Amino acid sequence: MQTLSQIQILFQQYLVDHQFQNKPQELYDPVNYILSIGGKRLRPALLLLSYQLFDEDIDKALPAAFAIEVFHNFTLLHDDIMDEAPLRRGKPTVHHKYDLNTGILSGDVMMIYAYDYLTKIQDSTKIPAILSVFNQVAIEVCEGQQYDMNFESKNDVKITEYLDMIRQKTAVLLAGGMKIGAILGNANEKQADQIYQFAENIGIAFQLQDDILDTFGDPEKFGKKVGGDIAQNKKTFLLLKAFELADEDLRKELFRFIDMKEDRELEKIDGVKGVYRLLNIKEIANKEKEKYQKKAFEYLHKLGVKSEKLKIIKKLAEELLDREI
Amino acid sequence: MQTLSQIQILFQQYLVDHQFQNKPQELYDPVNYILSIGGKRLRPALLLLSYQLFDEDIDKALPAAFAIEVFHNFTLLHDDIMDEAPLRRGKPTVHHKYDLNTGILSGDVMMIYAYDYLTKIQDSTKIPAILSVFNQVAIEVCEGQQYDMNFESKNDVKITEYLDMIRQKTAVLLAGGMKIGAILGNANEKQADQIYQFAENIGIAFQLQDDILDTFGDPEKFGKKVGGDIAQNKKTFLLLKAFELADEDLRKELFRFIDMKEDRELEKIDGVKGVYRLLNIKEIANKEKEKYQKKAFEYLHKLGVKSEKLKIIKKLAEELLDREI
To answer: Which residues of B touch A101 (CB under 8 A)?
Structure first.
């Protein structure tokens, strides 16, 4: 079995070896650009770790891991256009560095290459099962992004709707990747489903943690600006829960802070955080996160794989979910 | 064997029966919209006709025909954004009727559904071969679109480059669709390649004819405004050939017309057409078109399919390529 670092190095090498050399350069330069500006490479690592639970010959899963990373970056590219984001990982987004048309078309070709690499596997009898997982996941990712956009102008978002949105937008791709890894490694159908459930629950927990960190994180340790979600009136788990629990007076207070304009941003962030504290939102969100985390690990232990083999995945998941809050 | 009309009715019914009912509506309404505003449904018809050369049970090929039509409409949707087109088939384009983000995301999900329907086939052993054709085609369509955009600002476009661009942008999707039809119908590998070559050559001939019609067509019969390519300085086969053949004086004359602004559009169109006439560009373009048409039919006859069976395809191809010039 390979360690997480070994797997990460292996994948990084595959990524470098598979830069797009095709023509026209105007189409493929932006693809290489977005793939080169980093990120945690979490999705391919999880796919490879999942594969490794069932088979040692990890090289066989590298094209699929690459496919998942290319697809993930395609979604980032198109999402950045939709969000009008100027920066991604501290670097200019593709549509800013190049232009809108480049952003659209290079994203499109990335999606096709994701399918292309996904089906580059020796044992072609596995292709239908893998495609079935991937199509479902890719559709849900688009649906999740649409719900996310819808929620910006929707004033009665329910917490269940929010949880389903983050499940689709974030969790299913982690889950689908791990399921594909399991299928490639010859897991049985039940195991493939269990690993999907594990990763889906981890993904939701991870996103809930992101919500918590965005408001309560240590500015030094959290990569993004703390309070950004509040400043943007983002309908996170925290805000939706606060509205659910607040009495009429507190709800009015919350609205007063939310309606504050940009020039009173600090006051706004402090005000909303104050309401959150009154309602114990941080503790409630943490409990919700832990609920998903617990569920995830239950699925992992049901797999019937020796606990020795689960160590790396468990450690990675715990690290992901134990960031300083 | 079914007639072309029967096939068209069959496909139209499949299209109606497979409207997207999924949620969120904001994502799928634009998909149904663009699929509903018509077009000739040429690509699915060709796929089904190709299937019918080898097998009678045409229902089996309907999901793939639908996939090709969905993919084609996805490319139209994203191309319309890139071209800033307000209208498509006389109706508002998706990004005009809805907005940019809707255009991007609904297009994305269409591409995924194209893959989804493409792999909805009973005999899953055929999936790898079909995907291999489709991935290649889809990549080339994106590359062709990029070259088309590049050529707008490139001043030394060669005719071979132009022909390769229209091959990628237009012809390979017709070709790939027919090849997929053949594979589904159990054609052998050689036949599948020959039908690909047939359609690729028909596609190039079709696009050349479009160039000719845009300039020399009968305004009453041609759907679009005659002279539009000239007004927009589009680097068509006609213009590139004229530059190739013109002597220095005539080239200067051509540049004089090209540089005319919008307020002198009619003069510009007449002037460029005058140069084309001096150089016999219409006849040369027609010969070029006929070269591809002839090559196409040679591939068709090599198939080893009874000539009786080829009748519908031949008639359709001839109708497509014999529009009034």
So the answer is: 81-82, 149
